[in-house]
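User: What would this chain look like folded?
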Amino acid sequence: MAERLLLRYPGQAKAWHYTLEDYQLSRSDQVLSPQRLKQLDRVSSPELAPPKEKLLKTGLAGYQEGILSDLWCDVKQSMQGFNTSSV
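Assistant: Here's the prediction, encoded as structure tokens.
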């Protein structure tokens, strides 16, 4: 999904929390099937390369729930100074 958005909106879309560190924090014990891992062959964006390579080596899924507090902090920080009463 991230790859498709980056390709569809070049220069506008950003890979948010797709770093190697984020993958390691979000990693679970769930082993991905060979079919799921094969889907990564289509990922070519340079910013997705580090987590892609690590995922291929470990074979373990990563879930956003593992980095939810970091995601929420980013959202709160981006909302500072935003007047919600005008929305």
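The chain has five helices and two strands. If you want, I can go into more detail on any region.
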